[in-house]
Write a structure and sequence with these properties.
A hairpin with a 2-residue loop joins strand 7 and strand 8. 39% of the residues lie in helices and 9% in strands. It is rod-shaped, with a radius of gyration of 40 Å. The strands form two sheets. It has a seven-stranded mixed sheet, with helices on both faces. A two-stranded antiparallel ribbon has the order 4-5. The longest helix has 29 residues. Among the domains are: 223 residues, no CATH class; 88 residues, no CATH class. By secondary structure, the chain is α/β, with parallel strands linked by helices.
Amino acid sequence: MKSRRWLRFVLPLVVVAGLATMTGVAHVVQQPDPTDASFLSPTSDEGDGARLLADALTSAGVRITVHRSSLDALADAEVGGPVTLFVTTPELMHPSYLPRLAALPEQVRVVMVAPGQDQLTAAGLSVPVGGPRWTATAPQPGCSTDYVNAAGPAAVQRLRYDVSAYQAVRCYNDGLVEFRSERVAMTLVGAADPFRNDRADEHGNRALARGLLARDPAVIWLDLHEREPDPDDSAGRPTEPQQPDPGTDDHQGDDSGERPDGDLPDEEPTGEPQDGGEADSTQGGGNGVSDSPLARAFPPAVWATLALLALAALALAAASARRLGAPVAEPLPVRVRAAETVRGLGGLYQRAGARSTSLATLQGAARARLAEHYGLPADVPADEVAERVAATVGQPVLEVRHMLSGGVEDSDEELARAATTVQNLVRFVTGQQNWQQGTDEGNLT
């Protein structure tokens, strides 16, 4: 019995938890991983790659230079513009490089894809981050920028950026914002969807991505897929940017040298604001619960709501003095005499003032006893029993029906009188009492 009670309580919770886990894992699996070599890479034809965007920019006459090191990309951008520095994975940049983004020359435009709170703070930008949403949504533009109006709705709102501290252009419900910090023009995009191959034909993603990056004649594409090591560790190893090979397509770019020696991250960087860590929680410093894929799959508000509902259920159970789970029938530890049970039940009815319920219980038992006496089925209507009894005792059917089904006023005396009448009627019909004796005593009138 105990094991079955345990299953009744645990099984629904296990089913709900299993469904939530499967949903969270499926969502995490479908999310792109910035550490994949294909993620927003201008040479990748994978779904999360950006080959379509790179080809469109090249066709529009935009020269693309690809770097795989923040140091090389920054050095190239510091030469001057007009040029757009496209940062696809800001969460993988070493924090020491981020402040240099805001100090680039005035003719440089920086476009960052889904930067989190830690990256913006490290860059010296006072921009609170909201979100993330479960998936990127595509609201109306809501701003008057030419390239945004040409694109229309686009899936950029997964993170939201509060740029109230700056004179800024705010589009897509703060999913895309543009402002100038010190000298450089900054563009923050709240989701990677507009730049991906498999999302290019959704909404106005293709037009928006092309409009963002085609405003300058050249694009420096930071194609970073490993967390960068501390620059102090590579001191004494100067790295100079190499010029692109004239014999290759522009958007293929040129490697800036060997790939950094940093290790792959322990957790999947998502570009979402996380707690802990030096510049981002994916750089370490988190814990196994908050950094798990399931924890990151749902917004914090979901977990807070579930916790509050669980606490409310426990508080309600405690306030009601009830145990959790469905009622379970258990054998009594001792034998209880029928008279004691009747007295106990009567005491409960008396305390509740349930006179009509008490009489209805007695009348139901009387009808069952009379039906059995006449050989009638147990579910026979009360009117048929009343007709049989009326024929036996020689009383009007209405009076007998009132004895077997009528109610009582709110007085204990009337309840006692009605109960005695029902009891004497049953005794007479079943041959246990003389009818005249009962009527002489005034119990059947």
